[in-house]
Amino acid sequence: MERSFYFETVTQYNDFNNHETLHPLVSVIDFSKAERRTGSKMYFGIYAIFLKEAVCGDLKYGCNTYDYQEGTLVFVSPGQVIDVENKTDLYQPSGHALVFHPDLLLGTPLAKILDSYSFFNYRTHEALHLSERERQIVLDCFSKIGFELRQSMDKHSKKLIASNIELFLNYCERFYDRQFITRENANKGILERFEALMNDYYTTDKPQNIGLPSVSYCAEELNLSANYFGDLIKKETGRSAQEYIQNKIIDMAKKRIFHSHKTINEIAYDLGFKYPQHFIRLFKQRVGSTPNEYRLLR
User: Fold this and answer.
1) Residue closest to 36 by CA, chosen among 99, 89, 95
2) Which residues of 229-238 are buried (b: 16+ CB within 10 A; e: fewer)?
3) Quick one: pLDDT band at residue 57, thresholds 50, 70, 90?
4) How far apart, in whole angstroms, are the C-alpha atoms of residue 207 and residue 272?
5) SS3 content of the chain, % helix, strand, coil (to 5)
6) How far is CA 71 from the centre of its chain?
7) What is 82-95 written as a DSSP string?
8) Which residues pair with 49 in a beta bridge?
9) Which residues sit opposite 59 in a β-bridge?
């Protein structure tokens, strides 16, 4: 029977990994101190960032060929589940982790912007793959946080710990930007699949049954999280995924307006709009004229 663990507090996760709790709301984990264990499913009520070894580790993020082989960062936010691949054989966990409870950040500037770090909602196969230099920067950030945890708590402790977590997350944003660039060929493949997905969508009855293609629908079809998909499209095209989809819909609309004798209302329904006036408003916003005015141009 599959074992499951629930980690609602930092202390629970420390105990699981044979770690002393220096602060009830934050911890830096060295997995070499943990006892050998078998695979299990883990439910998190805390934030966790895992620095895993690149030899595919034990987290189920897939054994892909990575651009950078020295380490991998996996981000988990409260409410997420991590499944560990090896269910029966004992293994020794390796690597490091930073875990913290959302309450740690209450009253800090980081609390107001934490949701802007979209990689917390990426899927595990969209992990961040690090160069050796980047890995050392991550370990240095962990070391600074660990240093603060070993000091006597004073009025500066919370601010310094939160500031170092924010510094670490800002580095992660930089590293992800680098990864989007270094994986340009793979990203182009995703863009091509996205384009094909949009074209195929309008050769089926999905617009009538589902409606307009959403960002979450496209991401799911491409086996990506909505956040990762949106960030990738933004980096590659300079436009949001929603803008990209809307532009594609407008291109489809232009062709149907010119090459169809259907009414504007019929075209709107065919494209997946529930209300024709929404289509007319979007078309005028993007094209500068109404669909009927555009039709008169031919």
Assistant:
1) 89
2) bbbbbeebee
3) very low
4) 4
5) 55, 15, 35
6) 18
7) EEBS-SSS-B---S
8) 75, 98
9) 84
Task: Tell me the one-letter amino acid at 179.
Answer: Q
pTM of the model: 0.68
CA 36 to chain centre: 30
Strands 4-7 and 41-44: parallel
Structure tokens at 230: 């949106």
User: Residue 86's pLDDT is what?
Assistant: 57
Burial class (CB in 10 A: 0-12, 13-18, 19+), 291: buried
DSSP bridge pairs for 99? 27, 48
Cα(109)–Cα(186) distance, integer angstroms: 36
C-alpha 297: how far from chain center = 44
Q: Are 212 and 201 in contact (CB under 8 A)?
A: no
**Which of 48-52, 126-130, 165-169, 214-218 holds the top average pLDDT?**
165-169
> 129 φ, ψ to 5°?
-100, 125
Residue whose tokens read 């070894």: 53
Give the whole-angstrom CA distance, residue 237 versus residue 252.
Answer: 19
**Residue with the two structure tokens 């999905």:** 206
